[in-house]
Design goal:
Layout (H helix, E strand, L loop, with lengths): L1 E2 L24 E6 L3 H5 L1 H10 L7 E6 L5 H9 L4 E6 L5 E6 L2 E6 L4 H9 L5 E4 L20 H8 L7 H15 L5 E4 L6 H16 L1 H10 L5 E4 L7 H11 L1 E2 L4 E3 L4 E5 L15 E3 L3 H24 L5 H4 L3 H15 L11 H12 L8 H5 L2 H8 L1 H10 L4 H13 L17 H8 L13 H4 L6 H17 L1 H9 L6
Helix pairs in contact: 4-6, 6-7, 7-8, 10-12, 10-15, 10-17, 12-13, 12-21, 17-20, 20-21
Length: 495
């Protein structure tokens, strides 16, 4: 068994690719806040690809953890000299492991916020990137406004030199760079949220303005916030993954990362102090990310919603099980072709039919073991952003809506908290209590779920939407998920 660290790197199994560059030659250029599985399978991998080409050696990554739960990541990475194994899981069972060496250091902000601030204030740092999840941007779910009443935000505004949040840390670093005449860095969101750069811009500038209006104006005018579309399925690492890496390849890694073969990163080319040559390793540098982003949201993300509730109700528990069932595959492809795709603007360089087919292949990968429970979680945040815009646009153009509406009905049925076999469903949602209360009355008051204006606005007043929803919910109650999909497959017209 080979311990994963700098000293033993030369002893790693030859079947495990290792960094081909001298790690001691790396210098830091990026600070990344929120080091999780996705960052390590995506951005850090792209940097590692560049470094293996002999490029970007001055763009080493310094990770930063802000949340209390990040301490374990700091401890694991420190013990391994910030090396970790990325295991790509191919559908046929083939594992493709490689050691990633692009991360140089990891700072745990609660232990030493000053060290984090000074690292970002160093002019060598030209990009600060983020994967902090949607909740990490601290905006109100309905208004989208920055929450100045958040206790942690209030603490940081009162104690700017000893902050606890990413907003306080980043803004204090920018203030010091400005005072020292170093100029700003680029703040680059890599989170899977629509308009991630624009969201980051609004939230960080709102915080900066609340701290100091003049500083806020400088951040708004001088700091770039490029939008990006990111994509790679990266399940949570399990104990079995750790054991498999050890048994098959003899590598002792306390926290490897597993992922699918597919990866995509579409990035606006807006940087203030340079950037790595990302285009050399497959990143698409574009002027406008929105077409690619809408493609992902309305095809990939919405299709996850289309498969998860129906699949769970029918007795499946993994995405790959659903996507090996022809009935479900036909439903997903029909949604994508006839409802999701017609709402998309042109997507330069993308063959949409190939993209749709690839999505099914990705979802059907049995090695990833993506759970339907994960895909069903936080529906109240997902469906209004990914699926309802499709319904609204299709209503406006007179297009087909019955499959997308069926997904909404399947969510309402799922929120009842019991599957078709009578087993309880563990609903996970910030609005769980309210949603389950309404769904409990689905049979007596079937329109109540869609009359929730916080989630659906005025959609319940649209006759086509209301009629299709009520018919599908009734069918789900009377005949179940499979029979509902069979009925939808026979539907004609634009209902």
């Amino acid at each position: 068994m080979t311990v994963l660290d700098n000293q033993h790197l030369v002893e790693i199994n030859a079947a495990v690719a290792s960094p081909r560059y001298p790690r001691q030659a790396l210098t830091p250029g990026i600070v990344h806040i929120g080091v999780g599985g996705f960052h390590r399978a995506h951005q850090a991998m792209y940097l590692d690809d560049l470094m293996n080409r002999g490029e970007a050696l001055d763009w080493g990554i310094v990770g930063v953890g802000v949340m209390p739960g990040d301490r374990r990541m700091q401890q694991v990475l420190a013990a391994q000299d910030h090396l970790y194994t990325l295991m790509v899981k191919h559908p046929d069972g083939h594992l493709e492991p490689r050691v990633i060496g692009s991360m140089m250091d990891y700072l745990f902000a609660p232990d030493d916020p000053e060290a984090v601030i000074e690292r970002m204030a160093d002019p060598a740092i030209r990009i600060v990137s983020l994967t902090v999840t949607e909740g990490g941007y601290n905006f109100h779910p309905v208004t989208g406004a920055f929450d100045l009443d958040n206790p942690d935000v209030r603490h940081d505004l009162a104690n700017p030199s000893a902050p606890t949040t990413s907003f306080g840390l980043v803004t204090e670093a920018l203030a010091r760079r400005r005072a020292r005449g170093h100029g700003p860095f680029t703040l680059m969101s890599c989170d899977n949220i629509q308009g991630n750069g624009e969201v980051a811009r609004r939230m960080f500038t709102a915080y900066a303005r609340a701290r100091d209006p003049e500083l806020g104006a400088w951040v708004a005018s001088e700091v770039p916030f490029p939008n990006a579309m990111v994509d790679r399925i990266t399940p949570v690492t399990t104990p079995e993954d750790i054991d498999e890496l050890a048994a098959r390849f003899g590598v002792e890694d306390a926290w490897p990362v597993v992922c699918e073969p597919f990866t995509q990163w579409v990035l606006e080319d807006r940087f203030v102090a340079g950037r790595p040559p990302f285009e050399s390793v497959g990143v698409q540098l574009v002027e406008d990310v929105e077409p690619y982003e809408l493609m992902k949201l309305r095809l990939l993300n919405a299709s996850h919603q289309a498969l998860c509730y129906f699949g769970y109700l029918a007795g499946y528990r993994y995405a790959h099980e659903v996507c090996r069932d022809p009935l479900f595959v036909d439903f997903l492809l029909a949604y994508m072709r006839h409802e999701g795709s017609p709402t998309l603007p042109p997507v330069p360089g993308v063959d949409l039919e190939q993209y749709r087919t690839t999505l099914i292949e990705r979802f059907a990968n049995p090695q990833i073991k993506d759970t339907l429970a994960r895909l069903c979680a936080e529906s109240s945040d997902r469906i209004p952003k990914w699926l309802l815009p499709v319904i609204r646009e299709q209503l406006a153009r007179g297009g087909e809506i019955h499959r997308a509406v069926a997904v909404v009905a399947s969510w309402a049925r799922y929120a009842e908290g019991v599957d078709e076999q009578g087993a309880p469903i563990a609903v996970v949602d910030r609005l769980k209590g309210e949603l389950m209360r309404i769904a409990a009355g689905n049979r007596e008051h079937p329109a109540a779920f869609i009359e929730n204006r916080e989630l659906f606005g005025d959609l319940a007043e649209e006759p086509r939407f209301r009629e299709a929803y009520l018919a599908t919910l009734a069918l789900l109650h009377e005949r179940g998920a499979r029979a509902t999909l069979e009925s939808l497959a026979q539907s004609k017209g634009t209902t």
